[in-house]
Amino acid sequence: MKKTTVKRVLQYLGKQRLAFAFSLLLSIVYVGLILYVPVLIGDAIDAITGKDAVLLDVVKDCLLKAAVLIPAAAFIKWVMSSINNKITFEVVRDVRRDAQAHVNELPLSYIDTHPTGDIVSRIIADADQFADGLLLGFTEFFTGILTIIGTLIFMLRIQPLITLLVVGLTPLSLFVAKFITGRTYNLFKAQSATRGEQTAVIEEMIGNQKVVQSFGREKEALAKFDEVNNRLEEVSLKATFFSSLTNPGTRFVNNVVYATVTLSGSFAVISGLMTVGGLSCFLSYAGQYAKPFNEISGVLTELQNALACAERIFDFLDSPVRTPDGPDAICLEKAEGTVELSDMSFSYVPERPLMQHLNLSVPAGKRIAIVGPTGCGKTTLINLLLRFYDPTDGKILVDGHDTKTLQREALRRNVGMVLQDTWLMEGTIRDNIAMGKPDATMEEIMEACKACHAHSFIKRLPQGYDTYIPEDGGDLSQGQKQLLCIARVMLCLPPILILDEATSSIDTRTELKVQDAFAKMMLGRTCFIVAHRLSTIVDADRILVMKDGTIIEQGNHEELLAQGGFYHKLYNSFTPE
Questions:
Q1: Each residue's pLDDT tens digit, 241-254
Q2: Which of 105, 109, 117, 174 has the greatest number of C-beta atoms within 10 Å?
Q3: Distance CA 341, CA 339 (A)
Q4: d(CA 313, CA 5)
Q5: Multiple choice CATH, 2-196+232-317, 3.50.50.60, 3.40.605.10, 1.20.1560.10, 1.20.1050.90
């Protein structure tokens, strides 16, 4: 899996190949400069250690060159870091953009079965961790590799035998780093997964704070958070502990190498095999040769974390998307409104059937009410009509077309929906109402609001229709939010309407006015009305009574009461005889 993840990361890096090549070129120049400076220092030392001869001109020349090269190397390092930052954050930008685009293509079944907080954590927190590891890799990894190669060349030029000794001891450092980092990947992966779980818990508790407080579940909510938080602490400590062993372990090995070089180099100077300046230069190279191993070992630890986070992101990106519209999908411009269910079956989980062999024919312009106990399949039927889910077997036909052959966007453009649960986006009141018709004029928006009796409360807001509200509606009451959702549909007036307890949060006086507006709005339109209060659907052309995913009765109000069946019992359980 790690190889696949690395390959995916390299594919994203391929889009930045020019910047990457320029950064690599700067790395070569930078390493060349910093490796030439010890040569100058060594020459300067040799120029003042000669017997009865101090070559001040040579010393001056070497120091001047060093004074120019050191600031030049620092400037190149700064430019290289800026380029690496640009590469890293453009890669993460592309990853996040793909992840956000993928969210819009996910089937509703994925959203229903995965915590929102975990998805958010993958796109935000895991992407940040991935960026940190990638940036450190760019900054240290390639420069370190070039430094190792460069120092080997310079050391071989000065003293081949001692260089071979250094190279012989180097694998110990690599072994220590590999031994430790090989055990940190799974720990970092577990850390990322637990962090996503924690984000999901936080998102759930904050989003449902009123419910938690209403039922006095603060202690239970805190206990649930503490349990996840403690697991995150435990796995994070383990990951950090093992990863923190890498640098001290490699430093110990490198210090042993440095001490060996110092001792053997001192004997070489005494024996006349190398000069004092050469030893100084060699020791500098030995330190520079060892330093990248320390840095690379730290980079490898961070890369383990980055790859673990990247794997979670790519797992999300690889999750199956909804079935795309076919190339010959029909664009339904203006539906007449006929709806038919032909031997339709559906289940969320194959081993648990929900709907079996449903048949229904709804002529255009009819009002169809759907009633039944909780969990009988009312909302599921609505989701199927809107093609959030596709039937397991059979067909759903709109104007004689199988919904699977229709473009989703075109199908949903012909359907207006007001749900019991309101949804408002961050923006102005006007933006929220005009969501389905962005080019609507102010007069059209106001007429829609007057029709559903929302105009009066909107005018009382500080900036009227230009009042800015957060995504949850802010200080608006639940009834006011629902009126805005009703106005949204009244502005578009599509040929098919779905009303799922559309007036559940509105006061009785306003509800009577809105019901009158609905009656006018529903004229000539196919309407599906999901209701719990049966008094609101007695005028429906047909009432579907559902139980356990099956339509057990259908007819108008009088016919169903006369049958004396399930609807009769359901109706009289709310309405005294």
A1: 877 776 677 777 77
A2: 117
A3: 7
A4: 10
A5: 1.20.1560.10
